[in-house]
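Design review, sub-item: ligand-bound model
Attendees: FS, YL, KQ
YL presented the inputs for the succinic acid complex:
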Amino acid sequence: MQRNTARNFIFTLFAFLLAFSVHAEKLPNVTILATGGTIAGSGATSTTTVGYTAATVGVQQLINAVPELSKIASVTGEQVFQIASESMTNEHWLTLGKRVNTLLAQPNVDGIVITHGTDTLEETAYFLNLVVKSRKPVVLVGAMRPGTALSADGPINLYNAVLIAGSQDAIGKGVLVALGDQIHGARDVTKTNTSTPDSFKTPELGMLGYVQGPKAFFYHATTRKHTVDTEFDISNLSVLPQIDIVYGYANMNPVALNAFIAAGAKGIIHAGTGDGSVAAKVKPDLVAARKNGTVIVRASRVGNGILARNGEANDDELDFVVADTLSPQKARILLMLGMTKTSNTKELQRMFYTY
Ligand code: SIN
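KQ shared the predicted structure:
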């Protein structure tokens, strides 16, 4: 009798340990969606760090180059596009956003990594931040040097991105960006240098955390709504409204503004100087454009700070919207999505203070 009890105890303990070890070893399922960029680029020599060709290497080759991935996640790859990111379009974004939502709705997908060129990476990240309908991690990753270069940054960035995408701590944080061992939020991150590996920064508003060793560490979270908490739904959209950006500079004239409107722009982001000021030569045309129905958003080319409503222009009187702290390129994205819902400038202004 005693011997039976001991045997049962040992059997139960063994079963428990086995179940525990199986559970402990279960790796997260991470899908890598490849879109091109320098991370998939190649150069003529190992010292070619500029002037290389982006978007030449396929997703499986990217995965094979980092065998360490198999220790941190069960990884599958999908080639969505193979382009340099300066050629990213609204149509690419709609395709990508829908694919991300389809994948994340599957119970066997725990997180998504998107490999992307760095030139417009921050824009794709912010677009997804507004349209992904899941709390599961979505992480964009790029590289400043092609895989053929000395000290290529793609492999470690990809490893870090997969680690973040499989991390419980990344759930509900919005779309993330992983470069240079740092974790950034999609809304505020920007590319700050044409070519150095530490190019991605979140000036003033701050990055969210680091990857160190095999772990993601978070210290901050964005206060702005994202992903499941937004009002935007792209599931039935095949086109987005045309929104263009006009850039402010000394001696500015209204030619570009009027050309965009003539070409069908429904909204204009005015990337003004300073606090979004509008040049005297441009203002009459900007006011006329608004009167004729074009939505005008005042943003700034400066790169940091709040765009003061009713500061450099009387926005209430002129019926302009202000971009809050969004860069002109991100203001364009929010206005596009906002105008899929409404043309009411008060509602659009609310969105700029919400997202
Ligand atoms: C691109 O954006 O596709 C080229 C530049 C880069 O990825 O760093």
